Amino acid sequence: MTDLTIMIIRQEIKNDNYNELFSIEAATKFQGDLGDPNFQSTYNNINIELFDGNKAKKEKITTRFDNETNQRKMAFINFIVHYGHGNSNAILGVNNDPAIDQTLDGKLQGRTISTVSCKSFDPFGNNSSTKGYLGHDNIYWILATNQPFLDDLISASTIANLKLAEGKTYQIAYDAQYLAYDNLFNKYSAADSLAGAIALQNRNTLKLKGNPNDKVV
Amino acid sequence: MVKNKEEYTFNELKKWLNSLPKTRLNEVAVIAGEQTFTPIELMEAVKDKKNPYGRMLVSMFNNYKIEIEKKQKKSEKERKL
User: Fold this and answer.
1) What is the pTM of this model?
2) Could A143 and B67 be called an inter-chain contact, meaning their C-beta atoms sit closer than 8 Å?
3) What interface predicted TM-score (ipTM) does this complex get?
4) DSSP A53
5) If DSSP codes are grouped into helix, strand and coil, which group holds residue B77?
6) A154: number of CA atoms within 13 Å, CB side?
């Protein structure tokens, strides 16, 4: 039996619509679901470390990684879950500065990153030395005028991360996430074609790097 | 008859815009990463052939149309069986 240590990077920029309407809610939901008594996992223990607000910063993340190998001997972060903005070269944190980019690549071996953000899959994630990387290779779209759709999108965006925390393979997690967006398309497209188009876009830009049969640990 | 992808996108967005309460027309409706759009701004982005978000929306609605047609064909096939 193994333990899983998850770093949740929750970007929190004031007056940022993506953060305030979507990504903070999604990160909080993911963390809440992990703590639900009905949540079942093959991992013995799940430890969560939240890097939110001013902690969503490259220096803090670097220090945390370094504390795995120095005398502090902190647990190895197996799984990094990020909700916030991203670009082709990084996932972003405080002030939209890179929280993790290629300058940290030497510390990413053996880790899995999953991010709900724009564009970071290519080239950053796909070329990274992570064990696995789940992310998007284009813009991530949100529709704010349809509250039930927004609520469902928030839930859908946690599916792969929950599967990985349950101990499922990358492929199972990817397929479940893909299906969740597909279900959104089926549910909303008849009455709201923009919601349907957005669900489809987020589905189509989802990408996976790594051995599909691997698990986080 | 829809002439092209731009026209299809514009028509779909027009239907969507007409379904919104008037009070929502000046509020943020769509968030594309760091970019936000009110419904009116979204229509303008689609009209502007140089706007990358407008181009992306046209592509998104084209994919949407293809997917809808695919699903319709599948259900017609299933009905015939």
Assistant:
1) 0.96
2) no
3) 0.93
4) G
5) helix
6) 23
Over the stretch B33-47, which tens digit does the pLDDT of each residue have?
999 999 999 999 999
What token pair was written down for A61?
């993340």
B69 shares contact with chain A (CB less than 8 Å): no
Largest Cα–Cα distance of chain B, in whole Å? 49
Domain annotation for chain A: domains and CATH numbers: 3-143+162-167 (3.40.50)
Distance CA A91, CA A81 (A): 10
Determine, for residues A17 and B28 on separate chains, whether the beta-carbon distance falls below 8 Å. Answer: yes
Contact state of B64 with A118 under an 8 Å Cβ cutoff:
no
CA–CA dist B50, B13 (Å, integer)? 18
- Residue from B18, B64, B66, B75 to probe the interface with A (highest A Cβ count within 10 Å): B64
Q: How many CB atoms lie within 10 A of CB A86?
A: 30
